[in-house]
Design goal:
The protein is of the alpha+beta class and 414 residues long. Among the domains are: 84 residues, no CATH class; 202 residues, atp-gated p2x4 ion channel domain (atp-gated p2x4 ion channel fold). It is built from 10 helices and 14 strands. Helix 2 runs antiparallel to helix 8 and helix 8 packs across helix 9. The two termini are 34 Å apart.
């Protein structure tokens, strides 16, 4: 008996098929509502995924870039502290910097003819103050924040310790207070920026020297976000000015922001943005530029701006000497943001497949309204749902059917 039941269950599991019961409702309102929802979902998918977000395209964020810059200009210094009156871009921008960046000095302190000797330390407070020789011990030790090695002797004129160092010691106490004149005309320095980007997925290369540019145009143009958006030559004061505003359309030439940075310097970011759609002519892939100030300059007076020192060594009458330059200026950091897109069959098929599931919302919403909101919802629920009797009645009915099938068949052939 048990074996027959098991065989019956296996037969029913393997050789029967179940399907959902479909109830067709003759209702203009529900039919129209269902198709409105379906069309609305279709339009939303087409507009949002395939038009606004280009769901048929593969977006490539991997790229290789290179950026080079060349600064030109002439500045003037009339300070007695800086003996050299005329400075060109080789003096002020030829200092090795970080990769993808360039520097231009706007305020410098020059200490000429330094040589190895003994001299008093800087008179700035907190360096090596002393009143007697005992304050300058131990000897032959470097001073914290100092410029040389202690000799154990106190200079009674300056009230600072004597050190063995490059003498005379640099005095930069008034560099950021306007005590010395700044370099004039650095606001009119220009920089030529050449940027190249390569998209390996599409094997495409682009340069900010776009096809419409020519030599005569480059020699005469200056970048302007509206008038000359693809000119690769930038005026430094304009870059600083545009770093303070997000709406370049309202930007006007104003050198006040640049002048405010010349004493202490600063850091400006230049971002070259590439957003290329290679479904169209690749010559339509053009660069855009964004400028922003990167250093912190508000609310904190500690180590504001940007500066560093560099030296040049030479020999005079057999004595090794050097010129020490402390340069305050603006560091311009060039960055690249690049994306490329084009039609890609695999991406298109994946997005289409994912969108098909959205259409399942149409019958769900229609049934929600039909069975929960419509005024005839009870009638629709009765027609849609088929209820069986009590379990006891169902068992009696099944038992009767089984007994009828077990009755012997009479032979009436006689």
């Amino acid at each position: 008996m048990l074996g027959e039941k098991i065989r019956g269950h296996l037969y029913q599991a393997c050789f029967t098929y179940q399907t959902a019961k479909v109830v067709q409702i003759e209702s203009k309102f529900i039919g129209l509502l269902y198709h409105v929802i379906l069309v609305g979902l279709l339009i939303s998918v087409i507009v949002w995924i395939f038009i606004l977000n280009n769901g048929y395209q593969y977006v490539d964020h991997k790229h290789s870039t290179s950026s080079t810059s060349k600064v030109k200009g002439v500045a003037l210094s009339s300070s007695s502290k800086n003996k050299k009156a005329v400075w060109d871009s080789s003096d002020l921008s030829g200092i090795p910097g970080t990769n993808g960046a360039f520097f231009t000095a706007t305020n410098i302190i020059v200490t000429d003819e330094q040589m190895h000797d003994e001299c008093p330390e800087s008179e700035r407070p907190g360096y090596t103050d002393c009143d007697r020789d005992e304050d300058c011990k131990p000897i032959f030790q470097p001073y914290h924040l100092g410029h040389g090695i202690s000799t154990g002797t106190c200079n009674t004129s300056t009230h600072t310790c004597m050190v063995s160092a490059w003498c005379p010691i640099e005095d930069d106490s008034g560099a950021t207070s306007g005590k010395y004149s700044k370099l004039k005309y650095t606001n009119n320095f220009t920089v030529f920026i050449k940027n190249n980007v390569y998209f390996p997925f599409y094997d495409k290369r682009r340069s900010n020297l776009v096809e419409d540019l020519n030599t005569s145009y480059i020699r005469s143009c200056l970048y302007h976000p509206i008038k000359h958006p693809y000119c690769p030559i930038f005026r430094l004061a304009d870059i600083v000015g545009m770093s303070e505003t997000k709406e370049y359309e309202t930007w006007r030439v104003n050198d006040e922001l640049f002048e405010a940075m010349t004493l202490k310097g600063g850091i400006i970011g230049i971002t070259i943005i590439w957003d290329c759609n290679f479904d169209y002519d690749e010559r339509q892939c053009l660069p855009a530029y964004k400028f922003e100030r990167l250093d912190s300059y508000e609310g904190n007076d500690i180590s504001q701006g940007y500066n560093f020192r560099y030296t040049s060594h030479y020999a005079e009458d057999g004595v090794t000497k050097r010129t020490l330059v402390k340069a305050y200026g603006i560091l311009f950091v060039i960055q690249t943001e690049a994306t490329a897109r084009a039609f890609h069959l695999q991406t298109f098929c994946l997005n289409v497949g994912s969108c098909l599931g959205i259409f399942g919302l149409a019958p769900i919403l229609a049934e929600l309204i039909l069975l929960r909101i419509h005024k005839k919802r009870s009638l629709f629920a009765e027609r849609k749902t088929e209820k069986s009797g009590a379990i006891k009645d169902l068992l009696i009915e099944l038992k009767a059917l089984r007994e009828k099938s077990d009755e012997p068949v009479e032979d009436n052939s006689a």
